[in-house]
Each structure stands twice: as C-alpha cells, then as structure tokens.
Design brief:
The chain is mainly alpha-helical and 422 residues long. It has 17 helices and no strands. The chain is 75% helix and 0% strand.
Length: 422
Amino acid sequence: MTPELRRSLGVFDAVVIGLGSMIGAGIFVALGPAARAAGSGLLLGLALAAVIAYCNAMSSARLAARYPASGGTYVYGRERLGEFWGYLAGWAFIVGKTASCAAMALTVGAYAWPDQAHAVAVAAVVALAAVNYGGVQKSAWLTRAIVAVVLAVLAAVVVVSLGSDSADFDRLDVGADVSAGGVLQAAGLLFFAFAGYARIATLGEEVKDPARTIPRAVPLALGIALVVYVCVAVSVLSVLGAGELGRATAPLADAVRAAGAQWLTPVVRVGAAVAALGSLLALILGVSRTTLAMARDGHLPGALAAVHPRFQVPHRAELAVGAVVAVVAATADVRGAIGFSSFGVLVYYAIANASAWTLSSDSDRDTPVRVAQARATTVRVTAGLGLAGCLVLAFALPALSVAAGAAVLAVGVVVYAVRRRG
C-alpha cells in the first residue's frame, strides 16, 4: 500500500499557504516590468491577469476536490487527459518552479545582504527545507507569521503613498501609450504573482475534508490577494506614474521615498526579504509534492516517493528539491527567469483547464438534470476562458522567454518518449 501524507490543514491554513505563495516577492518587483510593458494600461493588465487566474483557480479547485492527492495538475492531467498530458504538466511545473525557487532565494539574499546574496540564498533554502522536513503543519505556522509581516508592510506602503501630497489619481488614467500587446504581456508577467493558489491544490493529500476545504480556500485566497494587489498597484501608480514605475527596480521602495517617507524604505526591504522567504517556502512545498506524485508513477526515481514514517512528509523529495535549488542559487543568477517561469506555469494551467473541461461530461445520478446542465455550462465557460487565456498570455511573453520555455518542454517530451521506448 502506498504511504499517504497526513491530512492536517484546515481552511485557514490552506488560505494562508495560498497567500504566502501569492503575496510574495512578486508584488515587490513585478510591477516595474509590467508597467514597462503596459504603460498606463497597468491596471488593465492586472485585471486581465486576475480574470484568467480566477478561471484557473475554479478549475483547480474543482479538480482538487475530485482528486485530493499530491501533485496538482500532474494528477488531473493524468486522470482526465492521459498519462502524457499529466507528465507534461508535471515537467513544466517542476522545471519552471525550481527556477522560481532559486530566484526567490536570491531575492532574499539581495535584500538581506547584497554582498553575500548567493550565500544567504543557500542558507535560506537549507533552513526552509529543514522546516518543511518537520511536517506541513510547521510550514503552515511559519507561513502565518510571514504573511502577517508582509501584509503589515504592504498596508504601510499603501497608507503612506495614498496619504502623501505626491499622490495624483490622474496618473491612473489610461493614455495613448496603451497597446493590446503591452497589456497582454503585462498580464502574463503579473499572472506569475497570482499563481500561488495552486499550492493549495498541490497539497491536496494533506488537506482535511478536501472536497469542502479546497473549493473554499482557493477563491478566498485569490480574492484576498487581488484586493491587496489592486491597493498596492493603485497607490504606487498614483505616486510614481506609469513611466517612472516602469523604470523602477524597487518600485515600492521608490514609491515611499517619493511620498517623503524615507524611514519606511528599510522596512520595505525587510518586507521584500520576508515575502521572498514565504514564496520560497510555499514553492518548495509544491515542487516536492509534484515530485512525489511523479516518482510514484515511475516518471522520476522511485526513491523520491518515500514518505517519512514519523513526520509523514515526502522527505526524500524535499531533500532532493532543496539540494537542486541550493546548487542553482549558489552558482547562477536566475532573477531574470520570471518570463521563463511564467511560460511553464501558463502551460501547466492550460492543461489544468483542459482537464476541468472534461468534468462537464461527468454526471451525478442524485443531481437534477437542470442543475447538472447549469453546472456543466459553468465548468465549460470558466475552463474554456482559462485555457484560452493561458495560451494567449504564454505566447504574449517576451520572445526569449517563449523560446526558452518551449525548448525545456521539448526536452521533457524527448525524455518521456525515450522512457516509454525503454
């Protein structure tokens, strides 16, 4: 019998883990590149990213309630579309999110101790891998503290920015600089920050009563994150304007300086480092659980499918993921990998939506026909919009990101074909 993970996460913990993934370092750095792409259409890009993220979230929640096992879309694609599509989703997730892990670790180092960024990044990976090894409940407790700190810092940024004489709401107007391509590219970059709700679904095997908990936790976490993002984007845009925001390397720090609150700058730096820690913690959790699921099916070495008898966590998968991320963080600078990671994540969610589309063909004998038809229509609309949106945003990303992402997916396809022939 395959050993299972311990179900210990309730709705609150699941929401917190989702928020820890979404309200992470992305909000501290992603607004600049997005504003560069969209100009004064930044808020339009944010709205588009939110709509597509909502469709994806609903698809993920429905699938996670049906298949409450570790692995997320790897499991859904395998069960609904076939082994290859599940494998491709898992491959895209592991490769893309491993790069994201290293990027978040380096972000911690860059903010905490810039001269020793690589050493701090490795130390952060080792420390968080140790926390995850002790059980998912310990990870949830640490994530609670991280989310509380980050929300407090973001609230201070919003209050100071909107309350300053530098705030000008005319800067929120959409101008002639806006183009459809720019808005789409900004939405693709901002989607990267929304993608953390998948962590709730990926941890499906560790959630109590997943059929009820996951459908509640996913939209709740996404809704809270959206409110936070809108408040931060409006406040920063009103102080800096689209042009200056697009040139900013640390937009939130620049906004509080422009608002005359220089004393808040070091607090924002600490908040960014803590936020990156929260993202890294949740990312390691998600990648290790997908690694566990793929190892169970023989797509990765079987030793990675082991579950610790005491802590009931995939300890070998966590150690393997931590080791790979530590090596990458120690030897490379992958902070520019947001586009590459976004491409992989968007492919991952495209497969999730395609999997959810097939749910409309399922019928429940106890459900009246009219109700079942209404549910099927809702599933098809959200899954269809999510699928189309993911594909459009994926190919609206910078050409280099699309090329790199496509190349990595091609490598995965080759590995799958070789393994099948062997």
